[in-house]
Design goal:
The protein is of the alpha/beta class. It contains 16 helices and nine strands. It has one domain: Metal-dependent hydrolases (TIM Barrel, Alpha-Beta Barrel). The strands form two sheets. Strands 1, 2, 3, 4, 5 and 6 form a six-stranded parallel sheet that branches.
């Protein structure tokens, strides 16, 4: 593990590397496969995405000015739902909130047609990049959003969702989570979960196994007719956390044509201060993510977060550690099966890549380590776009 001195002294301004990295970064179609900006906007409806915000005081790591600074061309904005009640009332609430979040995603693009537009295919993203516009993709995080209603997959697909993360931090009716405190419930995918995977294949919606249990990963690999992905995960061999993937899982995902997109949430990359973790959990329980907060609650949360950060300063992982995970996966299965999914506004952000404005540092670090321009293009979008095309090909075959 890198020393604290190395982590904090790392710079990204060596002239020789920077000139080459900047040129590659500008030429590549840069894609982030997992960002939780819609969740932030749901709780803060007055947040202006056209203004630049300070990530360390605003709690926001994504807006259009910083997207431009970071040289980003496309992002998947997640329709994220924390796990709620598995009851008819809970499912109705999940559907309502999911549709509200889809509206927010479409509003991000629709309100700023000079800056962005919705996209559902790699070809649309490429056309938008050529036109100088940002491509807004969307996806669902946590299959609780469909409850037990399989038809909602089509509803969400029609709203633009091109992948679904099957669960979040708790088990649901589809599958087991990697971090449910009560342990396993289904032993992987449930019978309903198997139907969900089959319907996702039929639609062309990619199966995302980030957050799922080991058994769920293996079940998805067995059942899915299309490649599967982990849109924001890391390698367990480098940091032993149940949210990360084992080498055997990485090999199996790659063998089926899938990709692993690098998460940048420090808790999945290094040991954290247990006191801070406990305090953060209490704060999240008091001000749940995904619920719209009143102005008073927003002020209270900001004050509480400031006090928490002063008492327990955040000990971030580093971008070098993130790229160590890329190196590990490349050595294991090749450069065709890795990409970028930092989980910004969902807890992601490391030293050297703290917010979207610093995305160019990823390219710098890759150039520094000897990756070629072709490699870097694959890592930024080529690999994930290949999976999107494969998913659509499989769907076309299943529909005929």
């Amino acid at each position: 593990m890198l020393s604290a001195i190395t982590v904090f002294s790392q710079t990204y301004n060596d002239p020789t590397i920077k000139v080459k990295a900047d040129a590659i970064h500008a030429a590549a179609l840069t894609l982030d496969t997992h960002c939780d900006l819609p969740m932030l906007l749901h709780g803060r409806p007055d947040f202006d995405v056209t203004e630049e915000h300070d990530p360390r005081t605003s709690g926001s790591k994504v807006d259009f000015p910083r997207i431009k600074k970071g040289g980003m061309d496309a992002m998947f904005f997640a329709v994220y739902l924390g796990q709620g009640a598995r009851t008819p009332e809970g499912y109705a609430d999940a559907k309502k909130r999911a549709l509200e979040l889809f509206d927010i995603v479409h509003k991000i693009a629709g309100d700023h047609p000079d800056l962005a537009s919705m996209a559902t295919t790699p070809e649309e993203a490429a056309a938008l990049e050529k036109a100088g516009k940002f491509a807004v993709f969307t996806a669902v995080e946590n299959g609780w959003a469909i409850g037990k209603d399989l038809s909602l997959l089509k509803t969400y697909y029609d709203r633009g969702a091109r992948y679904m993360t099957l669960c979040h931090t708790s088990n649901n009716d589809i599958c087991d989570s990697s971090t449910d405190p009560n342990g396993t419930e289904h032993g992987g995918l449930s019978a309903f979960g198997a139907e969900v995977v089959a319907e996702m294949n039929r639609l062309g919606m990619i199966v995302d196994v980030s957050h799922t249990s080991d058994e769920t990963v293996w079940d998805c690999l067995e059942i899915s007719k299309a490649p599967i992905v982990a849109t924001h995960s890391s390698a367990r061999a480098l940091y032993d956390h149940p949210r990360n993937l084992t080498d055997e899982q990485i090999k199996a995902i790659a063998a089926k044509g899938g990709v692993i997109q690098m998460n940048m949430l420090s808790g999945y990359l290094k040991d954290s201060n247990p006191q801070r973790a406990k305090a953060m959990q209490l704060l999240r329980e008091k001000y749940p993510r995904g619920r719209e907060l009143t102005e008073g609650e927003q002020a209270e949360r900001a004050k509480a977060l400031k006090a928490l950060n002063e008492r327990y300063p955040e000990e971030l992982a580093s971008l070098q550690q993130v790229v160590d995970h890329i190196d590990h996966i490349v050595k294991l299965v090749g450069v065709d099966h890795v990409g970028i999914g930092p989980d910004l506004d969902g807890g992601g952000g490391v030293n050297g890549m703290f917010d979207v404005s610093e995305m160019g540092n990823i390219t710098y670090e890759l150039v520094k380590r000897g990756y070629t321009e072709e490699d870097i293009r694959k890592i930024w979008s080529g690999n994930f776009f290949r999976v999107m095309k494969d998913a659509e090909r499989v769907a076309s075959e299943l529909r005929t």
